Amino acid sequence: MMSAEILSAIGQHPAPLLLALMVEAMVGYPDALHRRIPHPVVWVGSLISRLDLAWNTGSASAKRWAGIATAFVLISGSVTIGLALEIALTGWLGLVLLMLIATTGLAQRSLYQHVQKVSVPLEQGNLAGARQALSMIVGRDTENLDEGGVASAATESLAESFCDGIVAPAFWFLIAGLPGLLAFKAVSTADSQIGHMDDQYRHFGWAAARADDVMNFVPARVSGLLICIAGMGGWRIMARDARKHLSPNAGWSEAAMAGALNVRMGGGASYDGEWIGRETLGEGRRPGPTELKRGLTVYVRACLLLWLIVGALIWVL
């Protein structure tokens, strides 16, 4: 049995993580606070944009090395800030502040709310409203998607973001404390902004994309398992289709969700007018409003399962 001393030596005790998960699910990052103090991801995104503007120039080799330097700046800076905060935050007050800071790295509430904003108008037959809400959470072109395309894209985003926005940051907080959590969020934000395979970012964003692949490797597979348990099925589809995805990690949670809902997701999509061919995940018909709503239920159950696992770790320790 792992002792508290061992866990303390390699990372963070699970108690602050469980508190952070619960508090974030209840209040998220309130809009009133965001208007006064922008979410930390906004700060990271602004830094990435500045580095992109200043360093993403020259030859392919120069861009590759500049991208590596960008990833180093983001990771080392995040780890340094995380360590400084952990050293400074001591006692009960420090524990509370640590927990509150950790909530900014989680996205249970905001992810549910964003996908629900797609689900509600879709159920009401308001396809234009659903497309508009979807455009806020996916990178693909949404203006020509039909009902099935909107539901599929939203369900895919829900499944993938369950890993990126909840399981992975929780995993890195548990393994490496606040430095791990902040480093993951910085890498994840960089991957979203510059980790693309188009001409502009193919070389500059390479390091960010590879770092994100490494940091999501274990959480992605854990996410798939949680979705299968929460959805009471999907194991066969996850095992069969997870590796069909263009991403080495996103396919695990997406295939698990497709299997749990008994639907077919994925397939080609248009990004900035460019058609990207992708394989399908799952089998059966495309998801619709009903399946998207069921997907939200599976998502909530999967989040609660994560809470139970963290709670069990507290009990064991």
Question: Which range does the strand content fall in?
Answer: under 5%
What summary fits the major beta sheet?
A: 2 strands, antiparallel
Distance between the termini: 8 Å
Give the beta-strand count. 4
- Structure class: mainly alpha
Number of helices: 13
- Widest sheet, order of strands: 1-4
Mean pLDDT: 91
Overall body shape: globular
Report the helical percentage: over 70%
User: Uncertain runs with pLDDT below 50, 5 residues or more?
Assistant: 1-10
Task: State Rg.
Answer: 19 Å
Element-by-element helix/strand order: HHHHHHHHHHHHEEEEH
Describe this structure in words.
This protein is mainly alpha-helical and 317 residues long. It is built from 13 helices and 4 strands. The strands form 2 sheets. The protein has a two-stranded antiparallel ribbon with strand order 1-4. Strand 2 and strand 3 form a beta hairpin. Helix 4 packs antiparallel against helix 5, helix 9 packs across helix 13 and helix 10 crosses helix 13. The radius of gyration is 19 Å and the shape is globular. The N terminus is likely disordered.
